[in-house]
Amino acid sequence: MMQIAALYVQTGGCYFGLDGVDPWDEKRDARLYSGPHAVVAHPPCARWCRFAGLVEKRHGRKRGDDAGCFAAALESVRRWGGVLEHPAYSDAWPTFGLPEPSREGGWRRSLFDLGYSAHVEQANYGHRAQKATWLYAVNCDLPELAWGKSYICIADSKTVEMMSKRERSATPHRFRDMLISMARSVG
What we know:
Elements: E1 4-7, E2 21-24, E3 38-41, H1 52-59, H2 69-80, E4 82-87, H3 92-95, E5 108-109, E6 115-121, E7 132-138, H4 157-162, H5 165-169, H6 173-184
Parallel strand pairs: 1-2, 1-3, 3-4
Antiparallel strand pairs: 4-7, 5-6, 6-7
């Protein structure tokens, strides 16, 4: 089984305890990852997501100021291969020149490197919320994903409000397994 590194993951979360997966949580500081294995990267999103302006107003933390986490995750994916996951419409995409994926589905090729982007909703993989997500993959197999809108109604905000922060940010096991499979296909 090919070893992979899971970067920026929750301590004790779904990447811990798996054979062939080296999890890097906040304590290990994934910015320090120096290879050589392919990666699945989940860099912090609070400074890049649609709510980044609200975070900036409330807490003074500047949009995009994530202490270099996204840049390091992107560099790891480009250098070692694998896949990076971030919220849909992340401000990191235009900042780093990544191709904006189509909401209807499919992989979109980057003009600048070997990467591809895709839009997927994690509800199609078992998340209780819609959780629209963008992926950026380099040097790995590009699977057919569960394209298109999930059946979870976006208007049902009470479900999301009742979820803990940890549950909202968690990765469903089916989605995690697909990301791991992509990273293991780097070759």
